[in-house]
Amino acid sequence: MATINIVRRKEYNDRGRSYSIMLDGKYAGTIASGQSVNINTSPGLHTVSVKIDWCSSPDIVLNVQEDKIESLVAGGFKNANWLMPIATLLLAIHFILKIFFNFQYLIYLVIPFFLVLMYYLTLGRKKYLTLKEI
Question: What's the first-to-final CA gap in the chain, in angstroms?
């Protein structure tokens, strides 16, 4: 039997949520942060993607062969691991500076980070997750 192995990276974003694995447009299971999942399938061409809520990864077409294991790695969008922690840190610094020093302009540094996130949650929702062959 042919097997598809999917490994999910440990990341800050979505660490408490599982991704749904879609095989040929149908639900094939879930994968949690840091886990590895094997999916047994028939040999031939298969379309694989991962999904979380309304966001997903681009589809990958695999030619899975009999008694072979195709390996994929899943994760968040590019630079997702540092984007939200930096935006949250800047937001916290903004409130501290605003309360103690009446400095109100640091908030403008946070706006680009949130605009990137808004892109991936709206127009770029099919690129919110990544799925790559290893």
Answer: 20
Percent of the chain past pLDDT 90, that is, above it, reads 59
> If pLDDT is split at 50, 70 and 90, which confidence band does 97 have?
confident
Which tokens hold the place of 1? 């039997």
State CA 72 to chain mean position distance: 13
Instruction: Please give the model's pTM, rounded to 2 decimal places.
Output: 0.83
How far out from the chain centre does Cα 132 lie?
Answer: 11
- Please answer whether residues 50 and 56 qualify as being in contact, where contact means their C-beta atoms are separated by less than 8 angstroms: yes
Residue type, 79: N
H or E stretch covering 120:
helix 107-121
Give the DSSP H or E segment for 22: strand 19-23
Q: Is 61 helix (H, G, I), strand (E, B) or coil?
A: strand
Task: Examine the pLDDT at 112 and tell me if it is beyond 90.
Answer: no
Q: How far apart are CA 50 and CA 19, in angstroms?
A: 6
Confidence class for position 46, pLDDT limits 50, 70, 90 = very high
